[in-house]
User: What shape does this take?
Amino acid sequence: MKPDSRFQGLPKHFWANVRTISQHIGYTDRATSSILVPSNDQIKNALAELQLSAKHIFGAGGNLTELGLKLTDYFSFRAQAINQTVRPLLMDVRQAGKLFRELRALLKSRTLVPMNKQKGKKKKPAFLTGMVSMIVDAHRAEFECELDPHRLTSVTADGMPLRTLARRVDGAFPSAINPVAVWEIKEYYHTTTFGSRVADGVYETLLDGMELEELRRSQGIDVKHYLVLDDRFTWWDCGRSYLCRIIDMLHMGYVDEVLFGREVVERLPALVAEWVQTARNRKKV
Assistant: This one.
């Protein structure tokens, strides 16, 4: 999923309102188990209960201001995007395993695929990570790729470190040093609850995105940043509020694109082709 251009480049206070209102009202409509679109009355009541002003959202006569219209449009967009687009893309472990095996056979891939961190009968190949690795390897052309970097991502200038990210990413093209693109993978097949480890994964992505945004803003260096995630139970049954946070993060500019579940097979080949072209252009400079 790419960000919707209507909600890109918005000021920080817009997102402060999105987060504050969403947190107080809640993210899910319990009657339908779908993502909630707050009504005008719910927004008014939420801000009143928080002892916050609503005049920036509701102007004279209670009509929505420009900011208010943008907020309500965004809440509607976010709910529709998750309910209608994201939800069908998410897979369970059986579906992910089937797609993984089909892709490996199609690509005749010999790419090394790590095992998940489960034990016993649940110990299987890391299906989503494996699919990402096989697709990137199949489309990387003449370039190398760090599918599992064992070092921090760094950007250099004149042979010296310019920025080094605080944590390791799950993949970098073509290298963790001066990458064109980096990505993080959050697959949670076999989990039975939405634990702190899953929540931490979302905030780790946010941290990386904030560092890359600062690099882009202050140095004019653009490193593409992607999030790949899956498991229907984790993200839909238990973590719908975090799907909302991820869509927010995407539109705040901290992630360039999010690939949900089976979308990795549909979208990633085209992305890798873009990375290859960027890397070739760099070599010409």
User: Anything to note?
Assistant: The longest helix spans residues 66-89. The first strand starts at residue 28 and ends at 29. The chain has nine helices and eight strands.
